[in-house]
UniProtKB/TrEMBL annotation:
Keyword annotations from UniProtKB, A to Z: Aminotransferase, Lyase, Pyridoxal phosphate, Transferase
Family to which this protein belongs: Belongs to the class-II pyridoxal-phosphate-dependent aminotransferase family. MalY/PatB cystathionine beta-lyase subfamily.
Domain of life: Bacteria
Entries under Gene3D superfamilies matching the protein: Aspartate Aminotransferase, domain 1, Type I PLP-dependent aspartate aminotransferase-like (Major domain)
EC number: 4.4.1.13
InterPro entries cross-referenced by the UniProt entry: Aminotransferase_I/II_large, C-S_lyase_PatB-like, Class-II_PLP-Dep_Aminotrans, PyrdxlP-dep_Trfase, PyrdxlP-dep_Trfase_major, PyrdxlP-dep_Trfase_small
Cofactor(s) named in the record: pyridoxal 5'-phosphate
Residue stretches making up the Aminotransferase class I/classII large domain: 30-380
One Pfam family matching this protein: Aminotran_1_2
Name the UniProt record assigns to this protein: cysteine-S-conjugate beta-lyase
Family annotation (SUPFAM superfamilies): PLP-dependent transferases
GO MF annotation, one: cysteine-S-conjugate beta-lyase activity
Amino acid sequence: MTQDSADFDFTTPLDRRVYPTTKWHLYDEDVLPLWVADMDFAVAPAIQTALAERLAHPVFGYTHADKALKKTLCQWSHDRYGWEIQADWQHWLPGVVPALHVASLALTEPGDGVLTVTPIYPPFLKVADNTGRTTQTAPMRAPTQNDPLWRLDFDAMEAAVTPRTRLLLWCHPHNPTGRVFDEKELARLADFIERHDLIVCSDELHCDLILDGSAHRPLAMIEPRLASRTITLWAASKTFNVAGLTSACAVISDDDLRARFKRGCLGLMPSENIMGETAAKAAYAHGEPWRQALLAQLRDNVALIESFVARWPGVQMSVPQATYLAWLDLREAGLGESPQKALLKHARVALNNGADFGWPGFARLNFGTERAVLEEALTRMDALLAPSEV
């Protein structure tokens, strides 16, 4: 049965404090939490139905990704990106952050360099230390008046890389800036990767959340020369709001690289998640109408944020091309050394601290919430950031 946006509800607030919830329980009840990257929307009805049907069978033993799930992801990749992946390229596992750590442990040696660009999703910055490797970072180029987009700084990347650099942790579309890297940038990145003989772990979790009409290009597809050295990480978690079901897929076309990665999972990865894979199968098979309705809601939310940011002197935002995350430059907002802490204390709005992403003075705002909640949070921030009217 075909569904349109009227079939989905993105406006009714859901009480997320009923159950233990990372997003809503970290702060006091008077704080509006717009921080950790999960959304406040009810999942697609098809996912709810699939989970209920699976719960009706009261045995929850060890599981594995079945042929139907793998076929569904192959079809999703074909339909959305024109990337013809194969079922045997897929290795399903409980989450992307564990996959980053497995890649470091399995594909590098102690003391090797693990490179990433900043700002970046904070777990990226902890992988090397957690696995006995060396953290290497290169800052991106921030937007300017002549160029409103965050850009890769290849000079900074060349300065950061060393002969012992082995692994690039890549995020595409980019969290937190919302960049969708274009083909020219990806070609230069591929040159860099080949020149330094790097393996790439490409986190593409937000690829199904393109907001501005851009096209996502899976790195291993758009640059086939990198296929033998690329691990692509996909999941339904961000797009379909099922992060708590901890399920993701590593797509690896090269047999040797896939075997090394799978060996690295042995003893470290628990069994695959029954409910996570059930949700993923339903999402990829039946979730497209819901996704389209979600994208419309997120675009409206971006427009609302833009209207408020325009009122705030000293605050800059490069409009996200993808994700449900806004990256705010608050360095000139007059809020002191930690704008995030000031907003929490005086506006009672919780954002992510940019320092955790490697860029102090910035904050990440999660706009994957009901418009009424977002408008209330922005209004609270407005009282602190907008010029006083005499």
